[in-house]
Amino acid sequence: MINIKTMKIIEKGIKVTYMKKLLLALLVLTVISFALYQKASNQRNAAAQYNLGIMYDKGQGVKQNYVKAAKLYKKAADQEHAGAQANLGFMYYYGQGVTQNYIKTAKLYQKASNQGNALAQYNLGIMYEKGQGVKQSYVKAAKLYKKAADQGDAGAQANLGIMYEKGQGVKQSDVEAAKFYQKAANQGDTSAQNKLGFMYVKGQGVKQSDVKAKELFRKTCDGGSEWGCKAYAILNKR
Length: 238
Fold this sequence. Notes:
Blueprint: H1 4-42, H2 46-58, H3 66-77, H4 82-94, H5 102-114, H6 118-130, H7 138-149, H8 154-166, H9 174-186, H10 190-202, H11 210-222, H12 226-236
């Protein structure tokens, strides 16, 4: 008769074998994907060039190579692929595989933004807010954040909340700020959760509620936020 200890060893062995098979299957799939993307890329397929660029960018199935990634993104971007334009803009922003150039970044983000790419809209919004590669403009930043926020981008929702709270580029509104913080908080954005928590503490744009504030601070504390932990501890002493 097999005892409990033996059963656990067998179960563990089955799990290890399953994981090995799963990893092997993923590896094979990655290799096949690379080969297919490479073939299609050589035929000027923009989607393939974009996906192959991601593989080089992230080092998925190939040795990471920012230079090759940037070249592939460039080929796809020249064919008006929005994702490639956004990713190439990101590489120009950080100088990965290309020489850092904020002006080129902004131009690429603008092209992708015009096609409705939420990531590009969010990132271009940051550049307008900071005046990087473009003339600083809170109004344009807010409009771009709004476009990305309407597509569910949590970062854009959080940033737009800040602009409403400060009255930058938009008419100051604590109610609107809280609304966008809530949207970002619902997606797990720690910064938005903390800011919304403080609004609940003060009754700013929302009905005052220590209970809701504590709930938000507990979430951010669990996520590693020092501010969240401090705020949660203070509220617990009330």
